[in-house]
Design brief:
The chain is α+β, with helices and mostly antiparallel strands and 646 residues long. The chain is 31% helix and 34% strand. A hairpin with a 2-residue loop joins strand 15 (238-253) and strand 16 (256-269). The termini are far apart.
């Protein structure tokens, strides 16, 4: 300000300067100073604007990056995808993962790092995914995006090449899922894998209801941080039986010693056709060598709490051909049993009074699906009643073959004295080893019924001994009952407002108001809470289906009846647990019910009910009207017990 005032004062007070060259010099200097001051003001304003813009841009400083540990892998390997989001915002957005064709993705957790520099908080979150390739070729991953404050940030795409199974891409990976691990002995140049899995069956072609042994094998040459999680393959179309115990042994492959763990399952196809055994999955955790040998001093804290690097392994699908049982030579009494069996029969006594029961036990033992063995037919006998009283099983899985014994108990009641012949009891089955039907029979059993020593006494004469029926009728008419109660009296000082009816009439509107309020809350929750609505209506829907099953029972349609029973039970559980009907399986059902605290007894009864329904779909000839009635009662009881728990 001082420099701007001095020239201005001289210019105004010295008139001699008008005719000289000095005014030009002073005016020029004044202009330079004015322009300089003008630029200084604009520089200040521009600097402030830059600071504001920089501050705003820093506030929205969000970035995303994506990387993979390798860009070329084989079909039996896996890939690690890491998506990193950086920013100084407190609410870090979640990246959007598009559909990655050619890969199956599994989340393996995330890690977060927060830093404070010059009072600025910066956050870095890494999202980790394990990708399992599904087919060969070059695939594109991404782009991956996040949205924040109306802006979209993206990273990628990334190209990954998938080579055929068994080829060596890079020496870094040390795990996989080869379909035939024994091929590693053929090429010593292949790197030894630390972990891999496989599934295989003992036969790729079998008859309906013939045992197929499915084996899951887990090979490991390193220690694991924790027990691996095994997810068995889907076996739709098969009746499955677990075959413990797990088998463990050591095996040397390509110079590497592996601990092998085998889990075996017996499968029995329910119908002919081509079926697919889905992929099995194993989730394990191994040491992350990159973190252990990291040069960063901060990784020491990570190593203290290191739970290892997650590894997910999968196997290939297996296709199995199931052929129908031959029609040639099929016996008339054949009910679908497949295996190798023997049959015996015995009674608890050979002599009995008339109208007294005799217990007949028919035992079938051998190799095959013991649970689906059908009850042999006992020939009809005159003046003799035969009733089924149930069955029992004693199953064994020695040498990983389903075998055992099933006993059918029948009650035989002779209605008159005399000698009766039970049998012969005939039984037929299909032997897959011999590829033919086998018929076996039990020799007839003689039963003698003697005349009963006690005569039946009419109920009326037993209650009134010494009187005839006519006298008893007259006795009932002539009896006049005597009043034993005394009349009630009211005191003279009783007032109307103390009357209970009067008090009840005054309280009733208040109770009605409370009831209507609670009822409206209930209706509002039914409209807004889907899980609550499904749970409340589950019993009513199940009752309707059981009623429909009862109507089908009268028509004798076995398959439709058990389909309705299965649907009533499974939809009831799905509604109670608020899960989709289509996604529920027996394993999901068991785990969900255990989480909700249902008793093991009710869960086992429900699973047995589902097993009976499944068996009825492919062996309806084994069921009769009595079996259907028992299944209906069992379904009603199971649903009632589950409703009590709810």
């Amino acid at each position: 300000m001082v420099k701007s005032q001095i020239p201005s004062t001289k210019f105004q007070t010295n008139p001699n300067y008008q005719n000289s060259n000095e005014p030009n010099r002073f005016c020029f200097g004044h202009s330079i100073i004015g322009i300089w001051n003008l630029f200084g003001v604009w520089n200040l304003v521009f600097g402030i604007l830059l600071l504001c813009i920089n501050s705003l841009s820093y506030a929205d400083d969000v970035s995303i990056s994506a990387s993979v540990d390798r860009q070329e892998i084989s079909l039996d390997d896996q890939l690690t995808l890491t998506i990193t989001v950086n920013g100084n915002i407190s609410n870090m957005p979640q990246p959007k993962i598009p559909v990655m064709n050619g890969f199956t993705a599994y989340s393996s957790g995330r890690s977060q790092n927060i830093s404070i520099i010059n009072g600025k908080v910066a956050s870095t979150i890494s999202f980790n995914y394990i990708l399992m390739p599904n087919n060969e070729g070059t695939h594109t991953l991404g782009p991956f995006t996040i949205e924040y404050n109306g802006k979209t940030y993206s990273a990628g795409p990334i190209e990954v090449k998938v080579t055929p199974r068994g080829t060596v891409s890079q020496p870094a990976p040390s795990y996989g899922s080869p379909s035939q691990p024994q091929t590693y002995q053929e090429d010593s140049r292949r790197p030894a894998k630390e972990l891999f899995i496989e599934t295989y069956v003992d036969k790729l072609r079998a008859y309906v209801n013939e045992q197929i042994a499915l084996t899951f094998a887990f090979y490991q040459s390193v220690d694991l941080f924790q027990n691996p999680v095994y997810n068995p393959p889907s076996v739709t179309g098969f009746w499955s039986e677990d075959m413990p115990p797990q088998k463990k042994y050591y095996k040397v492959i390509n110079g590497t010693r592996y601990l092998v763990t085998e889990i075996k399952t017996a499968l029995f196809a329910t119908s002919p056709g081509e079926f697919t055994i889905g992929p099995a999955r194993l989730e394990a955790s191994v040491e992350d060598m990159e973190k252990i040998f990291s040069r960063s001093p901060f990784d020491v804290f990570d190593n203290m709490f290191n739970r290892g690097k997650p590894v997910i392994l999968t196997t290939e699908i297996i296709k199995v051909e199931i052929v129908p049982l031959p029609e040639e030579g099929k016996p008339e009494n054949f009910k679908g049993d497949v295996g190798n069996y023997n049959i015996t029969a015995e009674v608890d006594k050979n002599s009995v009074e008339e109208n007294q029961p005799v217990s007949l036990k028919v035992k079938i033992r051998g190799r095959g699906n013991i649970k689906t063995i059908s009850s042999p037919q006992v020939p009809e006998m005159g003046d003799v009643k035969v009733y089924d009283s149930g069955s029992s099983e004693n199953m064994s899985k020695a040498d990983y073959i389903v075998q055992g014994e099933k006993t059918f108990e029948k009650v035989i009641i002779p209605k008159r004295p005399g000698t009766f012949t039970i049998g012969p009891v005939e039984y037929s089955y299909f032997d897959p080893g011999m590829r033919k039907y086998v018929e076996k029979k039990v020799e007839p059993i003689n039963l003698t019924a003697i005349k009963s020593k006690e005569q039946l006494v009419p109920e009326s004469t037993a209650l009134f001994p010494g009187l005839t029926k006519e006298e008893i009728k007259l006795f009932k008419k002539d009896v006049a009952y005597i009043k034993t109660s005394t009349p009630s009296f009211k005191p003279q000082d009783s007032f109307f407002y103390k009357n209970k009816i009067f008090i009840a009439l005054n309280i009733f509107p208040l109770v009605l108001l409370v009831f209507l309020y609670i009822y409206e809350l209930h209706r509002e929750r039914l409209r807004t809470d889907i899980g609550y609505a499904r749970s409340r209506r589950a019993k009513r829907a199940a009752t309707k289906r059981l009623k429909a099953a009862r109507n089908i029972l009268s028509k004798g349609d076995i398959k439709a009846f058990y389909a309705e029973i299965h649907r009533a039970a499974i939809e009831y559980v799905a509604d109670k647990l608020n899960i989709p009907h289509a996604s529920i399986t027996k394993d999901v059902l068991e785990s969900k019910l255990e989480e909700k605290g249902y008793s093991r007894e009710n869960i086992n009864r429900l699973k047995e009910l589902f097993d009976v329904c499944d068996m009825a779909r492919f062996a309806s000839g084994k069921f009769n009207r009595g079996d259907m009635q028992r299944s209906l009662e069992e379904a009603s009881e199971v649903i009632t017990e589950l409703e009590k728990r709810a």
